[in-house]
Recover the amino acids of this structure.
């Protein structure tokens, strides 16, 4: 299917909305401590995949990955962090590794992640989190407005598809500065959104 113009924008918005559903179920953001059994993360991931164009997550109009953006590691004052494997990772993902950078400028916040040891062709999603990795694997998502939606631009989401050699990268920008409130970035396999793969503290 060939999507462009306003149709492409509506598709991107729909995909991000579906991402929020899968992310909430997978990231354990339910502060009540209960699990919503009506939400199936794998079904949400499948729906997202079905709604993507041929560019996959890399074609999300910059909302989850903007290849034209200057990577955070090339900006002044960028903070680098190394990913650590989490005990919630899916089986067979012990080779995942990489780095993340966060830069804040007058134009807002830029986040870049680069990874190796991924499943070729698999889709991955990341988010800034409000706690350090040692605190419940990053805790809930970071939000600019705590009472606002679980979608960009109120949250910072990244999405990418691993290349044939198992590498992956994404850069995303937001017009607001996160200050010191965003403590970490967490990466999830799209097909196992309830399994946090790696986390890096900023």
């Amino acid at each position: 299917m060939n999507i462009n113009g306003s149709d492409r924008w509506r598709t991107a918005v729909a995909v991000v909305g579906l991402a929020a559903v899968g992310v909430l179920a997978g990231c354990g953001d339910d502060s009540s401590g209960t699990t919503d059994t009506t939400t199936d993360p794998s079904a949400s991931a499948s729906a997202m995949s079905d709604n993507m164009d041929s560019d996959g997550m890399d074609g999300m109009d910059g909302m989850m990955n903007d290849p034209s953006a200057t990577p955070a590691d090339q900006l002044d004052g960028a903070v680098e962090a190394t990913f650590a494997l989490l005990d919630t990772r899916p089986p067979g993902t012990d080779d995942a590794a990489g780095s993340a950078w966060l830069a804040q400028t007058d134009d807002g916040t830029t986040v870049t992640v680069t990874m190796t040891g991924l499943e070729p062709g698999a889709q991955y999603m990341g988010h800034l989190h409000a706690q350090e990795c040692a605190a419940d694997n990053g805790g809930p998502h970071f939000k600019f407005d705590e009472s606002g939606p679980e979608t960009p631009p109120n949250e910072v989401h990244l999405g990418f598809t691993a290349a044939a050699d198992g590498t992956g990268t994404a850069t995303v920008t937001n017009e607001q500065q996160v200050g010191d409130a965003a403590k970490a970035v967490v990466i999830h396999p799209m097909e196992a959104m309830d399994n946090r793969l790696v986390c890096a503290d900023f």
